[in-house]
Amino acid sequence: MAADLSQIVKAYDVRGVVPDQWDESLAELFGAAFARVTGAEAIVVGHDMRPSSPGLSGAFARGAAALGVHVTQIGLCSTDQLYYASGALNLPGAMFTASHNPARYNGIKLCRAGAAPVGQDTGLTQIRELVEKWTETGAPESAPERGTISEADTLKDYAAHLRALVDLTSIRPLKVVVDAGNGMGGHTVPTVLEGLPLSVVPLYFELDGTFPHHEANPLDPANLVDLQKRVREEDADLGLAFDGDADRCFVVDERGEPVSPSAITALVAVRELARNGGRGTVIHNLITSRTVPEVVVEQGGTPVRTRVGHSFIKAEMARSGAIFGGEHSAHYYFKDFWNADTGMLAALHVLAALGGQDGPLSRLVAEYDRYSGSGEINSTVADQAGRIAAIKAAFGDRDDVTLDELDGLTVSSADWWFNVRPSNTEPLLRLNAEARDEPTMTRIRDEALAIIRA
Questions:
Q1: Are both 138 and 223 inside the same structural domain?
Q2: How far, in Å, CA of 96 to CA of 82, rounded?
Q3: Looking at the DSSP assignment, which residues form a beta bridge with residue 17?
Q4: pLDDT tier for residue 1 given thresholds of 50, 70 and 90
Q5: 26 and 139 in one domain?
Q6: Distance (Å, whole) CA 12 – CA 119
Q7: How many other C-beta atoms lie within 10 A of the C-beta of residue 71?
Q8: Is the pLDDT of residue 2 over 70?
Q9: 442 exposed, middle or buried (CB, 10 Å; 0-12, 13-18, 19+)?
Q10: The pTM is what?
Q11: Looking at residue 309, what is its pLDDT?
Q12: What pLDDT, on a 0 to 100 scale, did the predictor assign at position 310?
């Protein structure tokens, strides 16, 4: 019987519980399928600090090598370090990580040469079909000449590439607390920040895929508490928090207050536009703050709005030649990083901006935080389409309101907007609302929630 991979092959990656949902035998078939679908002569493979990662990534490498593919294993790395290797070596890549998920999970993020994404519509469906077939018929026939498996260390080259994009040598001295959450930031941060005018206070830098202190998911406010406390205790200039595979970076200011990823998107957009002579396209998804397109226009750039999700951002980056893109989830994409996301490069921009002037971070980002936002609110809903239709009916005949369905339903007025999107994997509707002031945001949020939860 062919394996049913519907539970672990997601829209953008492979992710599931080990060994209950997948194991090294399946990882080996995924390696062979990746080799077959990409048609590559060589690939690069990396992994995070989870206990199951070395075994799974090694099995994947063996599966690819059996079909004649030469595999370069770069070992422990962050996801954006794997993207660096894929871009710099111009090879397809596989990163073994489950990002911020609990320890029992693991997964694979796949890309083509130059860090181009692999998702359902760009190869992942074919990979899944091959693995399902081979679990029934047996592994594919090996190539006449087996591929080699070698090792390489790309950490220093990755750090040098990032440092070449942001000049931090002349900033004023800063004290920064970094919470790696026992994830891969503990591996990359020391090398990337080495020798800079920074006093780094490390928090949970020990690589431990069981996450003994807190989940490596800074999107959950509970996982920022330790960082916020330490920033205040140390009288630090700012704090940085990375997720498990260190491709996302969250920022807290000198007071320990979280800085909105939309504000960071706007700040980095200003810097990237300045680097490009005040010209260029900046991508933002439709639930980032209105501040972002406003700032981009003010700086002479062209904002482009997209659906939520890295595949849409990366596709639009490539289509439009955008110089930068940002999402509400603290994913930041750079043309100079093969259109891939790297929280570390965004962090360097924040450090450079803060260190290049005398004021505190809270004052620096205030101009990029112009609206009141609800954050993402999830509601369990049996009839997602029916609830969205009810919202459309309730707001559609108002003269001061516009509707669009680029991603779910966005309802907009001069002073406020909200978006309602269905989850792809759960019976949830996700609400994001924003307004010119807190009372208006609260009113619009509650009006939308009343319809959603009716």
A1: no
A2: 10
A3: 105
A4: low
A5: yes
A6: 4
A7: 26
A8: no
A9: middle
A10: 0.95
A11: 85
A12: 83
